[in-house]
Amino acid sequence: MGAWPDLTEYHEAVQHPQRAFADPGLKAVTLELDRFGMPKPATGGNAVVYKASEPGRFLSFKKTWAIRCFLRPISDHAERYEAISKHLRKVHLPYDVNFQFLKQGIQIRSNWFPIVKMQWAEGDLLHTHIEKHLRFPALLAALRAKWVTLVRHLEAAQVAHGDLQHGNILVRGGSIHLVDYDGTWVPALKGRNATELGHRAYQHPERSERDYGQEIDRFSALVIYLSLAALERDLTLWERFHTGDNLIFVREDFHQLDRSAIWQQLRRIGSREIDQLAAAVAAMVQQHPMKVGNLDSVLKNPASYPASSKVPTSIPASTPVTPVQRVAPKPARVPTPPVPSWMKKSGYRDHSDD
């Protein structure tokens, strides 16, 4: 295998699917194009994704795929994806989408490189869905209840997604779907280290690569639940604390339980439930990431999480508040090659900083 492809090479290769792909279905796809007639990519820290549709056949529905091309070497991802795929097929969860890891995926410079072929999931990303329904607390409450069910099913199936965050959660017609399984844990992967640590605005601040098991979703599941519960009661939290790359929390909020403004604002809501959920998050921050309780245990016995001394229980008018930069820090990653000028001129947008 030669040097790893860069963004420009992927962009050029996918314009000729018959030659680029080994998978028979992908050889016949039509890629989504931008307004200049060029393939429309979406990039992140680890991959570039293209939307592609197979031609419709007699008595079969037209299939649409997300073609995920990796921007850096992916070590043992083939084994991991095989284990994840096998386990998900066995447990039949309604939240995942069909995907295949193709070791011989895309040909560049006469060499083959792996890709992931994943069913294209339609719907609103979680933060977009929430923003559309901020003025409808009953709908947010319904979403929160479905979130509890999803998390409970993942726990029962011994699946941990590894990166529960707004960009990996789709809502469509009231149903929730999860995408991006790069960091997923299943029992066959026990004993390995994590390949990524997830979005920092949702993860336990002390989580490391060694923290990889059934428990890795528990902190982020509670953060999302608390965010939904708080927004049901106070939609102004969105304007004050949403950055476009979070819900209402950022990484620094978990480090500054006694000083960050959001904790005082949550206290001002005057809800016993919100106070108890905030106390649970504060307690988890002070625990080892793999020792935290699951969402069901928090909801069934919220009083077991006494108010933390670090979370303010009263709010004097003169209380100083440490400003927190409301921009969620990005996890360390291999730098993406610069976007060529011809791609910029064609209307290409680099989503790596979204």
Task: Tell me the fraction of residues in β-strands, as a range.
Answer: 5-15%
Number of domains: 2
Shape: globular
Which structural class do you get from the secondary structure elements? alpha+beta
Measured between the Cα atoms of the first and last residue, the distance is 31 Å
H/E element order: HHHEEEEHEEEHHEEHHHHHHH
The averaged pLDDT comes out at 85
Number of strands: 9
Characteristic key phrases:
354 residues, alpha+beta, Phosphorylase Kinase, domain 1, Transferase(Phosphotransferase), domain 1, 2 domains, 6-stranded antiparallel beta sheet, 3-stranded antiparallel beta sheet, 13 helices, 9 strands, globular
What does this structure look like?
The protein has 354 residues and is α+β, with helices and mostly antiparallel strands. The protein folds into 2 domains: 104 residues, 2-Layer Sandwich (Phosphorylase Kinase, domain 1); 181 residues, Transferase(Phosphotransferase) domain 1 (Transferase(Phosphotransferase), domain 1), CATH 1.10.510. It has 13 helices and 9 strands. The strands form 2 sheets. Strands 1, 2, 3, 4, 5 and 6 form a 6-stranded antiparallel β-sheet that branches. Helix 6 packs antiparallel against helix 7 and helix 7 runs antiparallel to helix 11. The two termini are 31 Å apart.
